[in-house]
Amino acid sequence: MTLIPYAPAEGNTAPVDDANCEPASVMAEAERIPRVLVVDDEPNIRELVQVALKFHGCTVSTAANGSEAIRQAETTTPDLIVLDVVLPDIDGFEVCRRLRAAGNEVPVIFLTARDTSSDTVTGLAIGGDDYVTKPFSVEALVARVRAVLRRASRAAQPGRYADQDDILRAGDLELDESRWTVHRAGTPVELSKTEFQLLAYLMRHQGRVLTRAQLLENVWGWDYAGESQIVETYVSYLRRKLDPLGPPLIHTQRGVGYSLRLPEHAAAHRAHQARQTWQQEPASGQAGLRPGQPEPGAPGHESGGGLPESGAGRPDDPGGT
Question: Residue 93: which domain range?
Answer without folding.
Answer: 35-156
